[in-house]
Recover the amino acids of this structure.
DNA sequence: ACAGTTCTGAACATGAGTGTTCAGTCGATC
DNA sequence: GATCGACTGAACACTCATGTTCAGAACTGT
């Protein structure tokens, strides 16, 4: 069982049941508890590793989405970002729900810097007149996050097709639900 | 310390730290652990009581918001609903994050019926042509929930004024972030 | 002042998760 | 086939939350 697979399974198990024991995680990962302890000495270490892995993936998705574009292409870049985030929905959900890791300076720092690219993109969109300027930039980002999260949730319960998600999120967020 | 206050404090403590012990909860509520155990025999009982309390409040907010209006007034009703939900943000966050209570039939039933009024309102809005019909009703509701939740989060960290929230959510949701 | 109720603090047994150790097994490499 | 490393299962001590009990204190209304 590769390290990556263990992180995958651990994310899944701990999302479904945050109080799951390390024994549960090990069993689900097809690994002995001893081995798990060898890789991650304590439960805390495992949680930190999972968080770092989640940040790694979000950062990679943001880089791949090439968000540093001129204002006129903001909308396309946004859709690329959303499309890139969809497959790593569980990781993001994990980051989001994980509480009590505020005492790890590395993670706090990454939290702030991981959101930067999207924030910059939104600002560029506002300057280019594509995104409303009568709302704060952080609120726009927050709205994007929330809509993406809704989409991920709908996907995870089987109500929304993954391939439909980016366009739906874009339409909803950009034009709203009103007629 | 009244029962209601205990539920308030318990919600707060368990939101900040889901793994908090009953001792922590009791201390925060200014009550002895013995007394807490007398009211709620087990931790599970306490969590169920907290959930029921949260549902009670959401249902009351929905009733107070008078959502059963003709289609032409859907928008105003929506804003009333959002305004009513803001003050009980912590309860809703608790319901949302609480996992592992799926084995309580009462709660599952309430979950489904608590969302009904808003879903009906959205459908009425769609029929009246005020809300887009090219998106599923459940997605509209999901979007509303997500935006409300974003607002609550912003309020809880002090970035958004509670009184500004309903209008901001309405504008964002109905008209989108695009120009 | 009294009786009845509630709350408290302390103690206790229990169970579960955690972290550690170690001898034995498996598999790959040379 | 011998060696080295990784993995395993079992056992162990330890900590901590939980649920229970009980005698005494604080508070209630009469």
């Amino acid at each position: 069982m590769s390290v990556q697979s263990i992180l995958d399974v651990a994310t899944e198990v701990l999302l479904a049941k945050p109080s799951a024991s390390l024994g549960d995680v090990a069993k689900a990962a097809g690994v002995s508890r001893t081995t798990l302890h060898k890789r991650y000495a304590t439960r805390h270490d495992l949680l930190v590793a999972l968080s770092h892995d989640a940040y790694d993936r979000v950062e990679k998705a943001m880089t791949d989405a090439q968000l540093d574009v001129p204002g006129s292409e903001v909308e396309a870049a946004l859709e690329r970002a959303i499309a890139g985030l969809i497959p790593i929905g569980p990781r993001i959900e994990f980051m989001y729900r994980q509480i009590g890791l505020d005492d790890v300076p590395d993670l706090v720092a990454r939290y702030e810097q991981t959101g930067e690219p999207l924030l910059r993109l939104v600002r560029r969109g506002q300057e280019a007149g594509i995104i409303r300027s009568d709302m704060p930039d952080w609120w726009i980002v927050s709205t994007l996050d929330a809509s993406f999260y809704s989409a991920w949730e709908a996907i995870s319960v089987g109500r929304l097709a993954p391939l439909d998600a980016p366009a739906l999120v874009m339409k909803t967020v950009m034009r709203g639900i009103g007629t």
About this structure: The longest helix of chain A spans residues 43-64. The mean pLDDT of chain A is 93. The two ends of chain A are 51 Å apart (CA to CA).
